[in-house]
Amino acid sequence: MKILHSASLALALSLGLAATASAFDLQAHRGGRGLMPENTLPAFENALKLGVNTLELDLGQSMDGMVLIAHDPRLNPNFTRDAMGNWIPDTPPPMYRLAWTALQTFDVGRLKPGSKYAAGFPDQQPVDGTRIPSLAQLFERVKALGNTTVRFNIETKLSPLEPALTPEPEAFVKAALAVIKAHGMTERVTLQSFDWRTLRIAQKLEPRIPTVYLSAQRNWLNNIADPRWTDGRTLAEHGNSLPQMVKAAGGATWSPYFGDLTAEALKEAKALGLSVVVWTVNEPAQIEQMLDLGVDGIISDRPDRVRAAMAARGLPLPPGMAR
């Protein structure tokens, strides 16, 4: 083994630190819904202008097979108006039961005044006339803007508890992969889900695409406690270790709710070769806590705040676009 001169050693260490730092993954959750209407082309374009490594988004499907970008299986009454400008009722039909042309009549560009949802995002800027986009439209917009580096972290929104609201898992994954491949985005995509069935299917159908295993162990959501979500896997089968469970399932990345992550679990995950990207981290103190912990990435509704924290630490920032 060669002994490095002190200056060479310092340079090597600095380069190593720079490589590690530059690998940090800043993701705009739903395009950055703290700033712009969620999962919309204006939001994604705003995130590109701001400068993020990855656009995080959710997939659904229309009755006639269009792979669309939306978080909820039903139209969300907190930000959806009909063709007449009226707010939709609280119990709309599933999007999977509506044709793409029908879905395009709805405006999703403004939060409903007075709603609890709107109160959570006081800085979101409305963009009236915004429609639900398709995955193909997003890829086309990114190409048109000339961005050749941003990645896409795509969540398949299925629930094994409500199968009637969404497509069958394998058909859904095949439809999504078809769009990804048609637009030449295979090398720029990761697929993530709370429903681990879809990740197993994706790994089989397209092993080049890394899979991201979402987890939450809270009162309001605990997919790890129910094997219907985890494709039949249980913690007990993996030494009560969630990182071991993700690794055994074939995951490249573990994406836990940030409030569930401990330093011990993070260390174990990294020892297993997993990246750890936490969601959804919005408040400055929370962002600082996750950066201190040493996570590999942050999914945030406020990517501007994450960028500010990164800049203060001297971390390399993903390039933005001219506004």
Summarize the structure.
With about 325 residues, the protein is an alpha/beta fold. It is about 35% helix and about 15% strand. It has one domain (about 25-315): Alpha-Beta Barrel (TIM Barrel).
Describe this structure in words.
This protein has 323 residues and is of the alpha/beta class. It has a single domain, classed as Phosphatidylinositol (PI) phosphodiesterase (TIM Barrel, Alpha-Beta Barrel). It contains 11 helices and 9 strands. Helix 6 (169-182) links the parallel strand 4 and strand 5 (189-193). Helix 6 crosses helix 7 and helix 10 packs across helix 11 (303-312). The chain is globular and about 55 Å long. Pfam families: GDPD (PF03009).
